[in-house]
Design brief:
The complex is a heterodimer of chains A (227) and B (120). Chain A is an alpha/beta fold. Helix content of chain A is 34%, strand content 19%. Chain A has one domain (12-216): P-loop containing nucleotide triphosphate hydrolases (Rossmann fold), CATH 3.40.50. Chain A is built from eight helices and eight strands. In chain A, strands 4-3-5-2-6-7-8 form a seven-stranded parallel β-sheet, with helices on both faces. In chain A, strand 3, helix 3 and strand 4 (83-87) form a beta-alpha-beta unit. Chain A is globular, with a radius of gyration of 17 Å. With 120 residues, chain B is α+β, with helices and mostly antiparallel strands. Chain B has a domain at 3-69 and 101-113: hypothetical protein PF0899 fold, CATH 3.30.2320. Chain B contains two helices and six strands, in the order H-E-H-E-E-E-E-E. Classes of the chains: A alpha/beta (227), B alpha+beta (120). The interface between A and B is large, with 34 and 38 residues. Strand 1 (2-5) of chain A pairs antiparallel with strand 6 of chain B.
Chain lengths: 227, 120
Protein backbone atom coordinates (compact mmCIF):
# COMPACT_ATOMS: atom_id res chain seq x y z
CA UNK A 1 0.00 0.00 0.00
CA UNK A 2 1.32 3.40 -0.93
CA UNK A 3 -0.15 6.84 -0.29
CA UNK A 4 0.52 9.35 -3.03
CA UNK A 5 0.11 13.00 -2.07
CA UNK A 6 -2.05 15.00 -4.51
CA UNK A 7 -2.09 18.74 -4.99
CA UNK A 8 -4.61 19.53 -7.71
CA UNK A 9 -8.11 20.94 -7.38
CA UNK A 10 -11.03 18.55 -7.81
CA UNK A 11 -12.56 20.89 -10.38
CA UNK A 12 -9.22 21.40 -12.09
CA UNK A 13 -10.64 20.86 -15.56
CA UNK A 14 -13.23 23.61 -15.07
CA UNK A 15 -10.57 25.85 -13.53
CA UNK A 16 -8.34 25.53 -16.61
CA UNK A 17 -11.21 26.51 -18.91
CA UNK A 18 -12.19 29.38 -16.59
CA UNK A 19 -8.64 30.77 -16.65
CA UNK A 20 -8.63 30.61 -20.46
CA UNK A 21 -11.97 32.45 -20.56
CA UNK A 22 -10.68 35.07 -18.10
CA UNK A 23 -7.65 35.67 -20.30
CA UNK A 24 -9.86 36.06 -23.37
CA UNK A 25 -12.11 38.57 -21.58
CA UNK A 26 -9.03 40.50 -20.49
CA UNK A 27 -7.55 40.56 -24.03
CA UNK A 28 -10.81 41.93 -25.41
CA UNK A 29 -11.50 44.36 -22.55
CA UNK A 30 -14.76 42.55 -21.71
CA UNK A 31 -16.36 42.91 -18.31
CA UNK A 32 -17.93 39.54 -17.47
CA UNK A 33 -20.35 39.38 -14.55
CA UNK A 34 -21.87 36.16 -13.20
CA UNK A 35 -25.29 36.75 -11.57
CA UNK A 36 -26.33 34.19 -8.98
CA UNK A 37 -29.41 33.91 -6.75
CA UNK A 38 -32.27 31.66 -5.73
CA UNK A 39 -35.00 31.21 -8.33
CA UNK A 40 -37.27 34.25 -8.23
CA UNK A 41 -34.91 36.80 -6.66
CA UNK A 42 -35.11 38.98 -9.73
CA UNK A 43 -32.05 38.24 -11.88
CA UNK A 44 -33.95 38.40 -15.14
CA UNK A 45 -35.94 41.49 -14.07
CA UNK A 46 -32.72 43.27 -13.07
CA UNK A 47 -31.18 42.41 -16.43
CA UNK A 48 -34.30 43.53 -18.31
CA UNK A 49 -34.32 46.93 -16.64
CA UNK A 50 -30.55 47.20 -17.04
CA UNK A 51 -30.70 46.46 -20.77
CA UNK A 52 -33.57 48.93 -21.14
CA UNK A 53 -31.53 51.70 -19.49
CA UNK A 54 -28.27 51.12 -21.32
CA UNK A 55 -27.24 53.28 -24.25
CA UNK A 56 -28.14 51.24 -27.39
CA UNK A 57 -24.52 51.70 -28.49
CA UNK A 58 -23.32 49.68 -25.47
CA UNK A 59 -21.97 46.40 -26.73
CA UNK A 60 -23.58 44.02 -24.27
CA UNK A 61 -24.37 40.30 -24.60
CA UNK A 62 -26.24 37.98 -22.27
CA UNK A 63 -25.93 34.26 -21.62
CA UNK A 64 -28.82 33.04 -19.53
CA UNK A 65 -28.95 29.62 -17.92
CA UNK A 66 -31.96 27.56 -16.95
CA UNK A 67 -32.69 23.90 -16.50
CA UNK A 68 -35.53 24.07 -19.01
CA UNK A 69 -37.23 26.57 -21.39
CA UNK A 70 -35.91 29.56 -23.30
CA UNK A 71 -38.36 31.95 -21.60
CA UNK A 72 -35.63 34.15 -20.15
CA UNK A 73 -33.79 34.49 -23.46
CA UNK A 74 -37.03 35.55 -25.12
CA UNK A 75 -37.70 38.11 -22.37
CA UNK A 76 -34.19 39.53 -22.62
CA UNK A 77 -33.97 39.52 -26.43
CA UNK A 78 -36.69 42.20 -26.63
CA UNK A 79 -34.11 44.87 -25.78
CA UNK A 80 -32.17 44.39 -29.02
CA UNK A 81 -28.93 43.01 -27.61
CA UNK A 82 -27.56 39.53 -28.46
CA UNK A 83 -28.86 36.89 -26.03
CA UNK A 84 -28.35 33.14 -25.88
CA UNK A 85 -30.15 30.68 -23.67
CA UNK A 86 -28.11 27.89 -22.11
CA UNK A 87 -30.49 25.07 -21.28
CA UNK A 88 -28.70 22.68 -18.96
CA UNK A 89 -31.29 19.90 -19.10
CA UNK A 90 -31.08 19.15 -15.39
CA UNK A 91 -27.69 20.44 -14.32
CA UNK A 92 -28.05 22.91 -11.45
CA UNK A 93 -25.23 25.27 -12.46
CA UNK A 94 -23.34 26.60 -15.47
CA UNK A 95 -19.75 25.46 -16.00
CA UNK A 96 -16.84 26.82 -18.00
CA UNK A 97 -17.35 24.47 -20.92
CA UNK A 98 -20.95 25.63 -21.45
CA UNK A 99 -19.78 29.26 -21.56
CA UNK A 100 -16.92 28.45 -23.95
CA UNK A 101 -19.28 26.61 -26.28
CA UNK A 102 -21.85 29.42 -26.44
CA UNK A 103 -19.27 32.19 -26.80
CA UNK A 104 -18.10 30.56 -30.03
CA UNK A 105 -21.19 32.09 -31.71
CA UNK A 106 -20.02 35.65 -30.97
CA UNK A 107 -17.06 37.79 -32.00
CA UNK A 108 -15.48 38.85 -28.70
CA UNK A 109 -14.17 42.04 -30.33
CA UNK A 110 -17.80 43.20 -30.47
CA UNK A 111 -18.47 42.80 -26.73
CA UNK A 112 -17.78 45.22 -23.87
CA UNK A 113 -20.08 43.71 -21.27
CA UNK A 114 -21.05 40.06 -20.87
CA UNK A 115 -23.75 39.15 -18.38
CA UNK A 116 -24.07 35.53 -17.35
CA UNK A 117 -27.34 34.79 -15.61
CA UNK A 118 -26.69 31.55 -13.77
CA UNK A 119 -29.24 28.83 -13.04
CA UNK A 120 -31.42 29.88 -10.07
CA UNK A 121 -29.60 28.22 -7.17
CA UNK A 122 -27.67 29.63 -4.21
CA UNK A 123 -25.44 26.59 -3.76
CA UNK A 124 -24.01 24.86 -6.81
CA UNK A 125 -23.04 27.85 -9.00
CA UNK A 126 -20.68 29.00 -6.27
CA UNK A 127 -18.31 26.10 -7.02
CA UNK A 128 -17.87 26.84 -10.72
CA UNK A 129 -15.60 29.62 -11.91
CA UNK A 130 -16.76 30.93 -15.32
CA UNK A 131 -13.83 33.28 -15.79
CA UNK A 132 -15.95 36.20 -14.62
CA UNK A 133 -14.50 39.39 -13.17
CA UNK A 134 -17.06 39.18 -10.38
CA UNK A 135 -19.74 36.94 -9.08
CA UNK A 136 -22.75 38.98 -7.99
CA UNK A 137 -25.23 37.52 -5.53
CA UNK A 138 -28.81 38.74 -5.50
CA UNK A 139 -31.16 38.30 -2.56
CA UNK A 140 -34.68 39.68 -2.48
CA UNK A 141 -36.43 41.11 0.57
CA UNK A 142 -39.16 38.47 0.20
CA UNK A 143 -36.61 35.83 1.23
CA UNK A 144 -35.05 35.50 4.69
CA UNK A 145 -32.48 37.95 6.02
CA UNK A 146 -30.51 34.97 7.38
CA UNK A 147 -29.80 33.63 3.86
CA UNK A 148 -26.15 34.79 3.93
CA UNK A 149 -25.55 32.55 6.96
CA UNK A 150 -27.46 29.63 5.45
CA UNK A 151 -25.63 29.86 2.12
CA UNK A 152 -22.25 31.31 3.12
CA UNK A 153 -20.28 30.05 0.14
CA UNK A 154 -21.92 32.26 -2.46
CA UNK A 155 -21.82 35.34 -0.23
CA UNK A 156 -18.16 34.69 0.44
CA UNK A 157 -17.29 34.28 -3.23
CA UNK A 158 -19.32 37.21 -4.58
CA UNK A 159 -17.82 40.69 -4.88
CA UNK A 160 -21.18 42.39 -4.74
CA UNK A 161 -24.46 41.68 -2.93
CA UNK A 162 -27.51 43.26 -4.54
CA UNK A 163 -30.54 43.38 -2.26
CA UNK A 164 -33.45 43.31 -4.70
CA UNK A 165 -37.18 44.18 -4.56
CA UNK A 166 -36.27 46.85 -1.99
CA UNK A 167 -39.56 48.66 -2.79
CA UNK A 168 -41.36 45.78 -1.03
CA UNK A 169 -39.51 46.32 2.24
CA UNK A 170 -42.44 48.06 4.02
CA UNK A 171 -44.63 45.01 3.43
CA UNK A 172 -42.38 42.17 4.62
CA UNK A 173 -40.71 41.20 7.92
CA UNK A 174 -37.21 41.55 6.49
CA UNK A 175 -34.39 43.51 8.10
CA UNK A 176 -32.03 44.92 5.49
CA UNK A 177 -29.56 45.84 8.26
CA UNK A 178 -29.60 42.24 9.54
CA UNK A 179 -29.10 40.82 6.04
CA UNK A 180 -26.16 43.16 5.49
CA UNK A 181 -24.64 42.32 8.85
CA UNK A 182 -24.97 38.59 8.08
CA UNK A 183 -23.38 39.03 4.66
CA UNK A 184 -20.45 40.93 6.15
CA UNK A 185 -19.97 38.23 8.80
CA UNK A 186 -19.37 35.75 6.02
CA UNK A 187 -17.54 38.23 3.80
CA UNK A 188 -16.02 41.12 5.75
CA UNK A 189 -16.08 44.37 3.80
CA UNK A 190 -18.46 43.05 1.15
CA UNK A 191 -19.92 45.66 -1.22
CA UNK A 192 -23.70 45.85 -0.89
CA UNK A 193 -26.30 47.88 -2.74
CA UNK A 194 -30.07 48.10 -2.84
CA UNK A 195 -32.10 47.75 -6.01
CA UNK A 196 -35.65 47.82 -7.26
CA UNK A 197 -36.44 46.81 -10.80
CA UNK A 198 -39.87 48.42 -10.64
CA UNK A 199 -39.54 51.66 -8.63
CA UNK A 200 -38.35 54.81 -10.47
CA UNK A 201 -34.62 55.29 -9.97
CA UNK A 202 -34.42 51.88 -8.28
CA UNK A 203 -31.40 50.84 -10.28
CA UNK A 204 -29.36 54.04 -10.00
CA UNK A 205 -26.79 52.64 -7.55
CA UNK A 206 -26.45 49.43 -9.57
CA UNK A 207 -26.00 51.29 -12.88
CA UNK A 208 -23.34 53.52 -11.32
CA UNK A 209 -21.49 50.44 -10.03
CA UNK A 210 -21.78 48.83 -13.46
CA UNK A 211 -20.46 51.87 -15.37
CA UNK A 212 -17.52 52.16 -13.01
CA UNK A 213 -16.65 48.49 -13.47
CA UNK A 214 -16.94 48.75 -17.25
CA UNK A 215 -14.50 51.65 -17.24
CA UNK A 216 -12.04 49.64 -15.16
CA UNK A 217 -12.36 46.63 -17.49
CA UNK A 218 -11.74 48.81 -20.53
CA UNK A 219 -8.57 50.15 -18.92
CA UNK A 220 -7.52 46.61 -18.07
CA UNK A 221 -7.56 47.62 -14.41
CA UNK A 222 -9.77 44.87 -13.04
CA UNK A 223 -7.84 42.37 -10.98
CA UNK A 224 -10.10 39.34 -11.13
CA UNK A 225 -8.70 36.28 -9.47
CA UNK A 226 -11.62 33.88 -9.63
CA UNK A 227 -12.49 32.95 -6.09
CA UNK B 1 -27.15 18.81 -6.25
CA UNK B 2 -23.81 19.42 -7.98
CA UNK B 3 -22.28 16.62 -5.90
CA UNK B 4 -22.81 14.21 -8.79
CA UNK B 5 -20.72 16.43 -11.11
CA UNK B 6 -18.08 16.69 -8.41
CA UNK B 7 -18.06 12.90 -7.85
CA UNK B 8 -17.45 12.46 -11.58
CA UNK B 9 -14.64 15.02 -11.43
CA UNK B 10 -13.03 13.09 -8.56
CA UNK B 11 -13.06 9.83 -10.52
CA UNK B 12 -11.69 11.61 -13.60
CA UNK B 13 -8.92 13.08 -11.46
CA UNK B 14 -8.02 9.63 -10.11
CA UNK B 15 -7.90 8.18 -13.63
CA UNK B 16 -5.62 10.98 -14.80
CA UNK B 17 -3.34 10.51 -11.80
CA UNK B 18 -3.11 6.76 -12.42
CA UNK B 19 -1.69 7.35 -15.89
CA UNK B 20 1.53 8.22 -14.06
CA UNK B 21 1.51 4.94 -12.13
CA UNK B 22 0.93 2.07 -14.55
CA UNK B 23 -0.20 -1.10 -12.82
CA UNK B 24 -1.22 0.63 -9.59
CA UNK B 25 -4.64 -0.31 -8.18
CA UNK B 26 -6.31 2.60 -6.37
CA UNK B 27 -8.01 1.75 -3.06
CA UNK B 28 -8.85 5.13 -1.57
CA UNK B 29 -8.91 8.76 -2.65
CA UNK B 30 -8.74 11.57 -0.11
CA UNK B 31 -10.16 15.02 -0.73
CA UNK B 32 -10.38 18.15 1.40
CA UNK B 33 -13.60 20.17 1.42
CA UNK B 34 -13.64 23.60 3.01
CA UNK B 35 -16.76 24.46 4.98
CA UNK B 36 -17.23 27.39 2.58
CA UNK B 37 -17.06 25.14 -0.49
CA UNK B 38 -20.82 24.43 -0.55
CA UNK B 39 -20.35 20.68 -0.91
CA UNK B 40 -22.30 18.22 1.21
CA UNK B 41 -20.13 15.29 2.26
CA UNK B 42 -22.94 12.74 2.72
CA UNK B 43 -24.42 13.62 -0.64
CA UNK B 44 -20.98 13.50 -2.28
CA UNK B 45 -20.22 10.09 -0.75
CA UNK B 46 -23.57 8.78 -1.96
CA UNK B 47 -22.94 10.15 -5.47
CA UNK B 48 -19.42 8.78 -5.56
CA UNK B 49 -20.66 5.27 -4.71
CA UNK B 50 -23.20 5.60 -7.51
CA UNK B 51 -20.55 6.78 -9.98
CA UNK B 52 -18.16 3.86 -9.31
CA UNK B 53 -20.91 1.24 -8.96
CA UNK B 54 -20.60 -1.55 -11.53
CA UNK B 55 -17.32 -0.18 -12.88
CA UNK B 56 -13.73 -1.33 -12.47
CA UNK B 57 -13.44 1.36 -9.77
CA UNK B 58 -16.16 -0.17 -7.58
CA UNK B 59 -13.83 -0.87 -4.63
CA UNK B 60 -12.39 2.66 -4.64
CA UNK B 61 -13.25 4.43 -1.38
CA UNK B 62 -13.75 8.14 -0.90
CA UNK B 63 -12.30 9.84 2.16
CA UNK B 64 -13.77 13.35 2.27
CA UNK B 65 -12.49 15.54 5.07
CA UNK B 66 -14.18 18.82 5.96
CA UNK B 67 -11.80 21.68 6.73
CA UNK B 68 -12.70 24.56 9.00
CA UNK B 69 -12.33 28.18 8.05
CA UNK B 70 -8.95 29.50 9.07
CA UNK B 71 -8.19 33.21 8.84
CA UNK B 72 -4.98 35.13 9.34
CA UNK B 73 -4.81 38.61 10.85
CA UNK B 74 -3.19 41.23 8.63
CA UNK B 75 -2.27 43.36 11.67
CA UNK B 76 -0.72 40.88 14.11
CA UNK B 77 -0.29 37.74 11.93
CA UNK B 78 -2.36 35.61 14.33
CA UNK B 79 -3.85 32.53 12.65
CA UNK B 80 -7.21 31.42 14.03
CA UNK B 81 -10.15 29.05 13.45
CA UNK B 82 -13.31 30.92 12.60
CA UNK B 83 -16.24 30.20 14.91
CA UNK B 84 -19.72 31.13 13.68
CA UNK B 85 -18.37 33.39 10.93
CA UNK B 86 -16.71 35.73 13.35
CA UNK B 87 -13.86 37.06 11.23
CA UNK B 88 -12.45 39.29 13.99
CA UNK B 89 -8.95 38.50 15.22
CA UNK B 90 -9.27 36.98 18.73
CA UNK B 91 -5.83 38.30 19.70
CA UNK B 92 -5.83 41.98 18.67
CA UNK B 93 -9.50 42.53 17.75
CA UNK B 94 -8.75 43.68 14.19
CA UNK B 95 -11.33 43.11 11.45
CA UNK B 96 -8.58 43.19 8.90
CA UNK B 97 -8.23 39.43 8.40
CA UNK B 98 -8.02 37.25 5.30
CA UNK B 99 -9.08 33.69 4.63
CA UNK B 100 -6.22 31.21 4.69
CA UNK B 101 -8.26 28.06 4.12
CA UNK B 102 -11.84 26.88 4.28
CA UNK B 103 -13.06 27.30 0.70
CA UNK B 104 -10.98 24.53 -0.86
CA UNK B 105 -12.15 21.56 -2.88
CA UNK B 106 -8.83 19.82 -3.34
CA UNK B 107 -7.40 16.39 -3.83
CA UNK B 108 -5.37 15.29 -0.82
CA UNK B 109 -4.01 11.81 -1.51
CA UNK B 110 -4.48 8.63 -3.45
CA UNK B 111 -3.85 5.25 -1.85
CA UNK B 112 -2.74 2.57 -4.26
CA UNK B 113 -1.61 -1.03 -4.17
CA UNK B 114 1.38 -1.55 -6.39
CA UNK B 115 3.07 -4.70 -7.60
CA UNK B 116 6.23 -3.68 -5.82
CA UNK B 117 7.68 -1.54 -8.58
CA UNK B 118 8.60 1.88 -7.21
CA UNK B 119 6.40 4.63 -8.61
CA UNK B 120 8.04 6.68 -11.33
Amino acid sequence: MERLPLKSKVLNENQIIAEQLRERYREHGILCLNLISSPGSGKTALLERTLASLDPATRVCVLTGDIQTDNDARRLAQYGFPVQQITTGGTCHLDGRMIEKHLAAWNLDDIDLLFIENVGNLVCPSSYDLGEASKIVLLSVTEGDDKPLKYPSIFFKSDLFVLTKIDLLPYVPFSAAQAEENARKVHPGMEILHASSTAPGGLDAWLTWLKHRMELAKQGALSAVGK
Amino acid sequence: MHELSIAESILNGVRTELLRYPGARPTKVGIRIGELAAVDVDSLTFCFEAVVHGTEWESLQLDARVCKQVRVCTECSETFDVVEYNAECPKCGSNNTTLQSGDELDFDYLEVETDGTPAA
